[in-house]
UniProtKB/TrEMBL annotation:
It comes from Amycolatopsis camponoti. Residues 17-71 form the HTH cro/C1-type domain. It comes from the Bacteria. The lineage of its organism: Bacteria, Bacillati, Actinomycetota, Actinomycetes, Pseudonocardiales. This is Transcriptional regulator. Gene3D superfamilies: lambda repressor-like DNA-binding domains. SMART domains: HTH_XRE. SUPFAM superfamilies: lambda repressor-like DNA-binding domains.
Amino acid sequence: MPTSSPVVASWELALRLKRRREQLGIEVRTITETLGFSRNYWSAVENERKILSPETLSRIIELFEFDDEEKDELLALRATAKERGWWTRYSALFDADIQRLFGLEQGARSMRGYESLLIPGLLQTADYIKAIMMPDVTVRQIEVDQRVEARLRRQHRLIDPDDPFSLTVVLSEAALRQQIGGRRVLKEQLIHLATLIERHPDALDLRVIPFTATSCGLFGAATVHLIDFDNPQLPTLAWQETVTTWGIIDDPIQVNNITTAYEDAYRKALGKEESLQVILARTKDLD
């Protein structure tokens, strides 16, 4: 199924062109001499910083010996890549890496995430989001409101009936106890979490790692996501976020290491029903 995300379309287009060039052993010099542009320009194409015109892309397709079906696919990817995702409305608030995450999320089939101390962004209430942001006194109220709006818009991905998506979350029990925003905000957040689990059993798989767990490969990590796609040509990507650094990880070895650690955490977490009961019990504790 074609992707609905300009970010994923741009990535897939660049990836397929680069793979084909390497498969055929075509040197960059051959491309630049044939099409009359610089090596730096082609580098920007392969690194998603430039999107070729339809005419130039058609010439590349011919040079790279793609068949008619692949030609149609690549031209369709280019058309989608030129569109603007909803997240571009918030470009003044978020850097390029975070906007890329939004775009990848929009075009993903599924995501697997780990959180050590916070409820994941795709599952947060508006008050919980605000409570996370408010300690930053440098952020104006209007920016807080826009950031909350953007995060709530991201959550449409989880419940979109026309574009199936699944989210698997491994959550430290600490996230159920840290009173972000105070007892009321946390309680409402946990009620919201339990409601999502019960309403969307096919889309949401949430597991809690209890305090009794003696080890876990992700202990010490903050926020980690693994992003998977329908298209078998697109590899799994990882997103890692700490207080001062964040970004996409595409190195296959690093992604494999994160995947192995995530699978270990998933095995050591409670089952779905047990996790739900822990959340409900914690909610009652906050009465």
